[in-house]
Design goal:
Chain lengths: ~250, ~260
């Protein structure tokens, strides 16, 4: 066996990615469960397609999938591995700390792409929703930007809270609040458009901005100033959450 | 730094808030030496080791690992270190062979699957290659953990309480493996609560208490030096002075939390 003094970062990253993808694959049941809510929405919101349009339903489904992936999947796995000392074991190897987290985030970005593809497939087969080729490409891009908000929010939660059970309880609560405030709020606003303040709060929340850019991405020709502002707000949310998440994050629970 | 030192720690201080866990600690580990760091609970053993491993940033002091400054060039220092943490855990979803593959990769060791299977055969765990780490017994986990700590042939191996929770057979086997590391010319720095272990395997020991090193010597010299001290005789239980008697005399009889 040959050994080098400091391994190349590309070798380290490749090795970490292989292990993290294997871990994700072995947890595929949990991954499939995160798809359940988006699939239920696609199936039960069929009547809304005529009222609000296909992109509205698809974007809500994807946002909920993004929240499940970023908040529930990412933060719970980070909290568990930190608690078990898995990160500390990796950190005593000649591995840059950023590469440990980069590998985890890359896996989640792939999950976001798979989630978006699954929603497209189910949306097409169940609700007959189709997009232009540009719409599909733009949606993948906006899904990654939107996903970054929830990954960084997950990072912030796991940075602030050390106990994995408390992290789990907190992300479930936040997920529930997003469903209640975001998804239900959107339906409420459709029925009662006179409540403008409620509509604005939802629109500029992390849920609303991600949904806006996803819906706009699905119809690139209709992209407007509102969508651009939502894109900026989404990037802003991601930047703030990521800054705090990195600042607060501790590699061990002691 | 002396040429025959693989690790030099000078004036190391580690604090957690206002609590000074390690205060002005200095010691060195020589090439091919097994060096034991002994101390009661909370004495500063793990904090000292963590600083050497680069897991925490000391408030003061220098740490040289094989000539590399562990604070300024942590990756270079870590490349020369093999580490077994007090409570090591690996991804529970991975099989033992995959954990080996992962750590071979992160240490820059190019090993084929057959070579890794050979390593597992050496520690009598070839049959467990497709088991998950959590499914192994304590002794088996310890063997895997040690093999991972030495997979890159490091010049210095750090073992934090390596025999805690092991049965006598596994403990003896681990001592043999630690001595085998030394025979290959590598140095070992271990922490332990077991005076028997320190006497059995360590060439030199340091006793640390309240964050300060209070004695450094060979186990036998330490016994001989304190043999006639009244406080040592007072705590001796069987007439024969042991390292444990010296340790208790130096660190006190009070139980630490």
């Amino acid at each position: 066996m040959e050994t080098s003094s400091i391994p190349q970062t590309s070798t380290v990253l490749k090795t970490l990615l292989r292990a993290d993808f294997t871990t994700q694959w072995r947890n595929r049941r949990a991954v499939i469960l995160t798809l359940i809510v988006p699939v239920i929405i696609l199936m039960t919101w069929k009547p809304l397609i005529k009222v609000a349009g296909g992109p509205f339903v698809l974007s809500n489904s994807i946002v909920l999938g993004l929240i499940a992936t970023g908040l529930m999947g990412y933060s719970n796995s980070i909290a568990r591995d930190r608690d078990k000392g898995i990160f500390q074991r990796l950190r005593v190897a000649p591995v840059p700390s950023w590469s440990i987290m980069a590998s985890r985030i890359l896996v989640q970005l792939v999950m976001i792409i798979l989630l978006t593809t699954a929603v497209f497939i189910i949306g097409n087969s169940v609700d007959k929703i189709t997009l232009s080729p540009g719409g599909y490409i733009a949606t993948y891009f906006t899904a990654i930007v939107g996903g970054a908000v929830y990954l960084s929010l997950g990072q912030m939660i796991v940075g602030r809270i050390k106990n994995p059970e408390t992290v789990n309880a907190t992300v479930r609560l936040v997920y529930f609040l997003f469903i209640l405030g975001g998804m239900m709020g959107e339906i409420f606003v459709i029925q009662y458009p006179q409540f403008k303040v409620v509509a604005d709060i939802i629109k500029w929340s992390p849920y609303g901005t991600a949904r806006t850019i996803l819906a706009a991405g699905m119809e690139p020709l209709k992209w407007n100033a509102d969508a651009s502002m939502a894109l900026l707000a989404t990037i802003g949310y991601a930047a703030v959450f990521a800054f705090l998440g990195i600042k607060w994050f501790k590699w061990n629970t002691k | 730094m002396k040429e025959d030192n693989i690790l030099t720690v000078e004036g190391l201080s580690v604090s957690y808030g206002s609590f000074n866990a390690v205060q002005q600690v200095s010691f060195e580990v020589r090439k091919g030496e097994i060096f034991g760091l002994l101390g009661p609970n909370g004495a500063g053993k793990t904090s000292t080791l963590s600083a050497v491993e680069g897991l925490l940033k000391p408030q003061a002091g220098t740490i040289l690992v094989d000539g590399h400054d562990a604070i300024l060039k942590p990756l270079h220092a870590r490349a020369s270190l093999g580490v077994q943490l007090q409570s090591t855990s690996f991804q529970p979803e991975l099989y033992v062979i995959e954990v080996l593959q992962l750590y071979a990769g992160v240490y820059g060791v190019f090993a084929t699957k057959e070579q890794l299977m050979g390593i597992l055969r050496d520690i009598n765990l070839a049959d467990s290659a497709m088991k998950k780490y959590g499914e192994l017994s304590g002794g088996q986990q310890q063997r895997v953990s040690l093999v991972i700590a030495t997979i890159h042939n490091p010049k210095l191996v750090l073992l934090d309480e390596p025999t805690t929770g092991l049965d006598p057979q596994s403990r003896r086997q681990l001592w043999e493996r630690i001595e085998a590391i030394r025979e290959r010319g590598h140095a070992v720095l271990l922490t332990t609560h077991s005076m028997e272990e320190a006497e059995a395997v360590c060439d030199r020991i340091a006793i640390i208490d309240h964050g300060k090193i209070i004695a450094i010597d060979t186990p036998q010299n330490m016994i001989d030096k304190h043999r006639n001290a009244p406080e040592v005789i007072a705590v001796s239980r069987r007439g024969k002075i042991t390292l444990e008697d010296v340790f208790i005399a130096l660190t006190g009889k009070d139980v630490r939390e």
